[in-house]
Amino acid sequence: MRLRAQKIIGLVLGGMLALGAVAATLRAQQTDRAKEIGGKLLCGIGTPLCDCKQILTQCNHVGCRNSAGMLKTLDAAIARGDSETSIIQGFVAEFGTAVLSEPSKSGLNLLAWYLPAATLFAGLLLVLFVISRWRKRPPLVASGPAVSSEISPEMMARARAQAARETQD
Amino acid sequence: MDLFGSFALILAFICAVYAFVGGIFAIRTRHPLLVKSTRQAGIATCVLIFVATFSLEYLFFSDNFASAYVVSHSNRDLSTFYKIAALWSGQEGSLLFWSFLLAIYVFSALLAYRNKNGELMPYVGVVLAGVQIFFLTLNNFVASPFKALAVPGAGGAMNLVTRADGNGLNALLQYPEMVIHPPNLYSGYTGFTIPFAFALGALLARYPGEKWIHLTRKWTMIAWGFQTCGILLGAHWAYAVLGWGGYWAWDPVENASLLPWLTGTAFLHSVMMQEKRGMMKVWNVWLVFITFLLCITGTFLTRSGIVSSVHAFAQSSIGNWFLGFIFLILLTCFAAYFKNRDYLKSENQLDAMVSRESSFLFNNLILLVSCIAVLSGTLFPVFSEWLSGSRISVGAPFFNKVNIPIGLLLLFLTGVGPLLAWRRTSLESLRRNFAWPAMTGLLGGGVAFALGFRQMYSLICLTLCVFVAATISMEFYRGAKVIRARSGATFLASSIDLTMRNTRRYGGYIVHMGMVLIFIGLAGVAFNKDVQKDMQPGQSMQIGQYTLLLQSMDSKPEKNYTAERMNVEVLRDNKEMMMLYPERRHFPTSEQPGTMVAIYSTLKEDLYVVYAGQSPDTQMPVIHAYLNPLVKWIWFGGAVVVLGTLVALLPNRKSVLVLAAVQGTSRQVLPGQALAQSISPTPAMREGRD
Lengths: 169, 690
What we know:
The complex is a heterodimer. Chain A is an all-alpha fold. In chain A, 63% of the residues lie in helices and 0% in strands. Chain A has five helices and no strands. Chain B starts with a helix and ends with a helix. Chain B is an alpha+beta fold. Chain B folds into four domains: 1-174, no CATH class; 176-351, no CATH class; 421-524 and 642-686, no CATH class; 527-633. In chain B, a hairpin with a 6-residue loop joins strand 11 and strand 12 (621-629). Chain B is globular. In chain B, 52% of the residues are buried. Chains A and B meet through helix 4 and helix 5 of A and helix 13, helix 14, helix 18, strand 9 and helix 20 of B.
């Protein structure tokens, strides 16, 4: 009888430990998920409480009275098992599109995304064009009296090379 | 003293107007007395601005609470150290501080060149006076720091009053770095006025040759050095004070400081093309114009309220003044350019695609693209609201996605540039120069991979860092080896000798090495970890290999604030290591909270502990701990960048011996100066002193 009671207690304790471990893992996953989703949201949008506009999960701005409430909402949504899209849509509905930490990849916002790449591409073409044009130009002829025949071309080339080596940046 | 300061500012304004108008007449008439008197008016303007600034500081030190500005930004218990910083803590004082720093530059330039460059200096003086007039207009008529404290009395009349104490300094500004960060940053912003004035002056005067470039190189480097220091100190302040575990949040005000730094960096590189090869004259002039414009644009963004930021000053109508000034500068620059653009005709001619010249072109392109990416991202919310009516945000994830690849490209070019020769690089030399650094870089990347760096950008970054460090080390090694062979000195002494013989070149390499260290630090971001926990005394938490045990909480009253402190014992592998004391501060005069982060910093990682207040749910103290790898490399790299800048500012120990030797030979061999004349068109020799 006593052995059986010990077995039951053992099983219950084991079960509790296992449940605890599962809960801890779930909490860790929730935290990771909260960090991931929170990374796509900004704190302090459209509220007079704080205008820090920091990434929500990174917002530890001194005196911020906004992030705690937003994080609570986020944690609650994650605990309910809401999808990322519905969580983000919920925040957009409450705070507007400005709550998103980066512009969406649609409409006018595409300009923000493509402008740097377009500038780089256009700039590359321009630089290549400039280089090819400058290469086609005839080299400048140095003015001044001709070099005396007493200095050999090799000696002059050596002097120039040495000077160029020691003076270049 | 407030009347004294106010009077000094008015007089400074009058002197600046005289220096501007008189300067224009002096240029037209070329009357030597008028030229001299306008220069002296420029110097007097600066002296009067110094007087006004010291007057305002005196009001702070004497606790003069009849002054509205002092009441708003100081209190009796504020330490002397922070009373210095109170000067630039508000809109009005910071604008006066801007004028003060500008006056230091103008004063130095006018004195340094008072008997030199007679053709150019009147133009430079006019441009400088024009810029000073704008800021003195703000100081006198728009945002005067010398307003007396007044309250409305009976009949609507204003009665002057004196308060017993002030509101105190913003809690976030009461940190030692805030006493040195703004002066550095402002010195950077204002410093770019000098190259701007010389560039515009040279264009207006059609000043011959590249002399304006030579004259402004050191001024540009000084401004760039201050800007770099200011940006890094600001990043360190954000890291140590704001308590969010990071140092750069791509906030609009942070971005504003980065923009002129990027174009200034581009100018410091492209300027060599003009000096060595007489190329890119138009580009260089416009780079200086753009850099100055970005300095003013940055100030406009910070002070107009057009973009919201935790760092910005309160929204005010002052933005319209800056907008008008930006428009005026643009108009002047375009007018000067279109009138005298023939003066900027360049000797643009390239020998080969693979050359140092090409690498500078690509370097400039990448820096400018980065500048456009940051500027467009910063201003996009404003344009989006104008065009579509909807507010959007452009936060750190956007800037990281766009700028990380650009930064890596730039890092690659930093390594490639020194391997390429001016004019032409043969395939053979390319192979010879690239082989060792490339192999070292790949090996470095392999080691990083083995150590667990699996994030793509971090891995590429570390590989490139090793590659660039190898190219720079190789440059030092090759040069020092030659000197060592001749002198027999140690390798270190030979390296120092090498550096001092060509401070500009090797100072530049030291700056590049500093940037490599900064990039190593940035590569660590991908591996940041953080844990937050509500804890009672006696409880502990784990982060990485560290255990944080909250031993107790205490309260520590200080003169100007009360600190609520956590006493946290740090254990590593269950062995006692040290105590950390993160705290929250309460400033009673301003009713503001503040934090003091506790950081245990090593080259490997920072253990960063924040007392994040009390949990609203459990009422328990919340501890937020971060493990940030490699952060210390950023601050160390910053120090190396500053060191390199200082080295590059030093004069060369010896001028180039080869030229003297060849000239000496020419005297023996040639009658006259035929050889010297024949080699003078070679740009490399023309710049012998660099």
